[in-house]
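Hey,
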Amino acid sequence: MGAAAEELCDRTATALVRALDEREVSASEVMEAHLARIERVNPHVNAIVTYLPDAAMEAARAADRRRSRGEQAGRLDGLPVAVKDTVLTKGIRTTFGSPVMRDFVPDQDGLVAERHRRAGAIVVGKTNTPEFGAGSQTFNTVFGVTRNPWDLDKTCGGSSGGAAVAVACGMVPLADGSDMGGSLRNPAAFCNVVGLRPSPGRVPWWPSSAPWFTFVVEGPIARTAEDAALLLSVLAGPDDRSPIALDDDPARFAGPLDRDFGGVRVAFSPEFAGLPFDPRVSEVVATARGVLEGLGCVVRDGEPDFSGADEAFKAWRAWFFELAFGPVLDEHREQLKDTVVWEIERGRRLGAAQLGAAERARAELYHRVREYMRDVEFLALPVTQVPPFDVSIENPTEIAGEPMETYIDWMKSCYFVTATGLPAISVPCGFTSDGLPVGLQLVGRHRDDLGVLQLAHAFERATQVGERRPAILGEEPVGARVPGPAA
């Protein structure tokens, strides 16, 4: 691939949309560049697992024909995107990372795929995910493991790991993902990109077996906050198939994100909620305080009381897994990952008293945090408790000498925020001394997704950390091996 084509892959989505609109480049040129990048880089990292080059090129040529007639399908017309393999895509294999679904080809699109297509975006393929999105290490027995482009021996996180890697490597400028316990934020932090967990209902979730459920959301992964806002402007908006869908006009996310942060109060904590943190993470996150102050923010040490978050999250997560995947367990137990089986069975043991206690805890948590954030507009916290870990293990079993009781306990720094229902974003913060990315988690007030994007935009412009790119080109592919149990 020539230098000009390489440069197209390194442009932001916003810049590519502008270039397409101004006829500086054609959709075919943009697509050819990105397909060449995929074919060069994907064998190293295994991020895109169902690949559609011929269909993508034909769609790009169709976009060019539309533009030649002065027509345009939508805001992203001709732009390459990748869709997480948990999103239904009509006529395109959708496996959920499970051998049970290995050959499943849906006859309908999920809402996210619908909105990509409506905006004119072109799906180049599906991105890898752990089985049924369970856990934050992207591997499965269908496609293998997805590797971190900053260190191929490390995990990229998950469950939207393939999406984060594809964006970090310039294989696509935008990708979607989903987040229950950190699945947009965690891989973004591990891959030095931006992952936004929107407010529940901001991006309607359909089809869903739990349409009133607020723990699972879908949202964007991008290389900049501006690009994440661009994709959010396409994915967001009301839909009566989701009873919690928000009615706000999504076009407001497509405007400039510039804002004066002078005097804006931010609560800052490089370690919070009494959780253990790898000191390498805390050291990098601590540098964010000076950056926020440099933006004019009034930064104070502190955090809300997150009591009850663990109880609420784990109970409702188990309830959801039983609801969504219980029938799969009944028919295909022997094919399921052990942690998926464990999660479903835990859901089946829940009683009304346990769910009642979990919901009381969640209600109390929401109101405590709401009251706390009357005095501060944002929280600034670590995204993860550890840097990217060895890809050969499923999950960390201890952090700073503290044992982890379950496969998700190392993700509490993300899922405690999930339990509050507040919008949160992972923005690149810095690198450990051994070159591994660390993210900063910015949390906003109730439904203030725009404010979160604005602060992330200001932060990334001040640090320019997100402009660093992984140097993996030219290496021999290492294959995609499924990791074994944690040591």
